[in-house]
Amino acid sequence: MAPDPICLLCGRPIPGTAKQSLHHLIPKLKGGKGGPTVLLHQICHNEIHATLTEAELARTYNTVEALKTHPRLAKFINWVRKRPADFHSKTPGQRRKR
C-alpha cells in the first residue's frame, strides 16, 4: 500500500479520509488552466483563497514557497500542523475577490 500523499503547504499527510483538493499555482482565471497544480488538504486550500486574491496568487504567490512566506498563511500553517491529518473545519471569512 502506498503511503499517504503529503500536503505541500502544511507538510501533514493527506489520508484517504481527509478532504483534499488540487490548487492551481497560477489561478485558472489568470492563465493557469492546464498549469501546475499541487495536492493540498481542503482546509489549507480554503485558507489560501480566503487570504489572497486571484491577482495576488498569479503575481506574487504562485509557488508553494511563496505561499509559505505570507504572514497569515505562515500563522495558519503553524496552527494547522498541530491538528490531526484528517482535521477539517470551516474557514472563517469569505473567499477573496477575484
TrEMBL record:
Tell me the first and last residues of the signal peptide.
Answer: none
Report whether Metal-binding shows up as a keyword of the record: no
What are the record keywords, sorted?
Endonuclease, Hydrolase, Nuclease
The organism named in the record is Parasulfitobacter algicola
Instruction: Please indicate if the UniProt record lists Hydrolase as a keyword.
Output: yes
GO MF, one example = endonuclease activity
User: What are the residue boundaries of the HNH domain, all occurrences included?
Assistant: 7-50
Coiled-coil segments: none
The record, for InterPro entries, names: HNH (IPR002711)
Transmembrane parts of this sequence: none
Name of the protein in its database record: HNH endonuclease
User: What domain of life does the native source organism fall in?
Assistant: Bacteria
